[in-house]
Amino acid sequence: MDSEPHQHPYLTCERYFIFELLIMAAGMLGAYTLSLRGGVFCNAQTANVVLMAVAFGQGNFKQGLYYLIPISAYTGGALLSEFLPKKVRHIHFLRWDTYLIGFEMIVIFGIGWLPLSYPPQIAQVLINFICSMQYNTFRQAEGIPMATTFVTNHIRQFGIGIAEVLKKKDLKVFGRAMKHCRMILFFFGGGVIMAFVCTSMKACSIWLALLPMLAAFVFLARADLSNEDIEQKPHGH
Questions:
Q1: How far apart are CA 186 and CA 69, in angstroms?
Q2: According to the model, what pLDDT value does residue 7 have?
Q3: Would you say 150 and 121 are in contact if contact means Cβ atoms under 8 Å apart?
């Protein structure tokens, strides 16, 4: 009998439950900025590009140029998350994915100390930056491309999955569709919880997002310090 413990075919940073924890935190961040930090959604950049285009089209170039700040922060997060993993692997202690979650937690903790009287753009740009890094780092959950900061593609994939089930009666496709549905529900649940506590906890309500992120960090760090290969790249990278 094989005495070795069963090894999951995917790294811990690719497991569904990690993605569910991260997208729950992202739902909280989205509700937080919409409720308390300027009424915008900072987890993605489509709205900023649209707002910049509208401002330029209306001749308001000064306002339009402002949107280059959050867009640049998002771009910078993606660039940094491309260059740092190779350097982190040489440390041979924790994976890049784990360090990233730790860094995000520090940023979120700092945002909670910013008074609501401060310009909301400070918190917005910081969240732009960390969401970009997270989106670019956590790409596939057990072989399925997934995002952990917004749900647009999850909604699309859920719809496609249901259509395939109706056409082909394929339960395997249904299972995949339900995984996307779970991501939507975790994001939604995080948003509901954050919207509820924002009214009472105000600026520091963002600290609630630290709970799912801390859980993810503990699972990732424990895997890094046990028997997972620090050098192994996650699928999709």
A1: 29
A2: 63
A3: no
* Residue 27 contacts residue 189 (beta carbons within 8 Å): yes
Contact criterion met (CB below 8 Å) for 29 and 125: no
Give the per-residue SS3 of the chain. CCCCCCCCCCCHHHCHHHHHHHHHHHHHHHHHHHHHCCCCCCCCCHHHHHHHHHHHHCCCHHHHHHCHHHHHHHHHHHHHHHHHHHHHHCCCCCCHHHHHHHHHHHHHHHHHCCCCCCCHHHHHHHHHHHHHHHHHHCCEECCEECCCCCCHHHHHHHHHHHHHHHHHCCHHHHHHHHHHHHHHHHHHHHHHHHHHHHHHHHHHHHHHHHHHHHHHHHHHHHHHCCCCCCCCCCCCC
15-54 pLDDT per residue, tens: 999 999 999 999 999 999 999 999 999 999 999 999 999 9
The two tokens of residue 208 are 């609630």
What are the φ and ψ backbone dihedral angles of 140, each rounded to 5 degrees? Answer: -135, 135
Global pTM reads 0.94
Characterize 64-101 residue by residue with b for buried, 16 or more Cβ atoms within 10 angstroms of its Cβ, and e for exposed: bebbeebbebbeebeeebeebbeebeeeeebbbbbbbb
**Which sequence spans correspond to the domains of the chain?**
20-224
Predicted local distance difference test score (pLDDT) of residue 3: 44
Chain segment 147-174, per-residue pLDDT in tens: 999 999 999 999 999 998 999 887 788 8
Of the chain, the percentage scoring pLDDT greater than 90 comes to 84
